[in-house]
Write a structure and sequence with these properties.
The protein is an all-alpha fold. Helix content is about 80%, strand content about 0%. The protein has one domain.
């Protein structure tokens, strides 16, 4: 998700009058905030996967919408940080769900297909950033 913003970073920086450091911070703070995956995993055992998945998806959506309406760099960076807090939940929750749905022999293939999209998105985003 972080590098989806990468191709648009120069125009976002110009529009919001961000310095180089603020631009990089706006891009990278999302990844920093995904540290919540360390805490969400154990919480799924207490509260269940579905409620936490719904809660973190709504959280993620709300702060991504806030990113779209940001009028300055501070708002953008703050909203990206809070969106990252919600996004960090997807990895431990999805791992548990796939463990419940597929046998151990099938998990490797299904999990690699599941992670193909976000990892391919990062690769394509970085590639576009280098080209543009």
């Amino acid at each position: 998700m972080s590098t989806i913003m990468a191709p648009a970073l120069p125009s976002i920086s110009r529009e919001l009058h961000l310095s180089d450091v603020e631009s990089v911070l706006a891009l990278g703070i999302f990844v920093l905030a995904t540290v919540t995956s360390l805490f969400i995993g154990p919480l799924t055992e207490l509260f269940g996967r579905a409620p936490l998945m719904h809660l973190t998806n709504i959280w993620f959506l709300a702060f991504n919408i806030a990113c779209g309406f940001a009028k300055n760099g501070t708002t953008l960076i703050t909203a990206r940080f809070f969106a990252g807090l919600g996004a960090g939940a997807i990895y431990p929750i999805s791992s548990g769900c796939m463990g419940d749905m597929w046998s151990p022999e099938e998990r490797g293939r299904t999990y690699s297909l599941y992670l193909l999209v976000p990892l391919l998105g990062v690769a394509v985003g970085l590639w576009m950033l280098l080209i543009l």
